[in-house]
């Protein structure tokens, strides 16, 4: 009995002490030049590896109720690609569309939209955060990306899934520059990473990436490639665009855009 009381006192005392320490933590410790401040500044540059450790490979992004969809999904970036090959697909109502999966795989393949719609589907209501500072909650339906890639037989050294898109953003010296993006195979196999062909219970509109766009729910909007034509598995991001892993990454954005 006596022991228990002492222990309770001890715990209460410890709790008070730690509250005080926390309450007073920030001002003195973050003062200019302190070691702690240096540490926090370094923490700001968290590398991809450390972010991955903190996030964990399987943490889920928050999902929402249908009642929380209070706005249309705001289209951003390209909203109506003018590329000839894409216009032909629109004219054919995407019946002629095939998604190519190639690169570091033993069984390169291509699948139609009808085939994708017949694969196991997942629906999720999530929040899309654009780096420009706006967010939208929308409902996405698609097929999980991981099993689709695994069916193509990724080589043991494959690390990235690189998405090629139909939309040309600018004309470079060597020709048109189309949007592209990449994620690693951890994110590709994450349960919420889907190739979406449906949005808010409708076929995915052209403005939001028809016929197929990826959802990578724990990262920022620019990672979520729209108008996907091809997914290439690769050991390295060299040789795609400028090598940064995406159209915006080649222009200075972070490759790992964790939220
Ligand atoms: N192919 C392609 N994908 C893209 C873009 C783009 O311009 N082209 N813009 C990105 C950006 S910055 C955002 S915020 C989202 C916008 O998706 P939404 O049009 O469905 O809102 O798509 C991303 N994927
Ligand atoms: Mo964005």
TrEMBL record:
Protein name: DMSO/TMAO reductase YedYZ molybdopterin-dependent catalytic subunit
InterPro entries from the UniProt entry: OxRdtase_Mopterin-bd_dom (IPR000572), OxRdtase_Mopterin-bd_sf (IPR036374), TAT_signal (IPR006311)
SUPFAM superfamilies linked: Oxidoreductase molybdopterin-binding domain (SSF56524)
PROSITE patterns (UniProt xref): PROKAR_LIPOPROTEIN, TAT
PANTHER family reported for this sequence: BLL0505 PROTEIN, PROTEIN-METHIONINE-SULFOXIDE REDUCTASE
Residue ranges occupied by any Oxidoreductase molybdopterin-binding domain in the UniProt entry: 93-235
Source organism: Aureimonas pseudogalii
Stored Pfam families: Oxidored_molyb
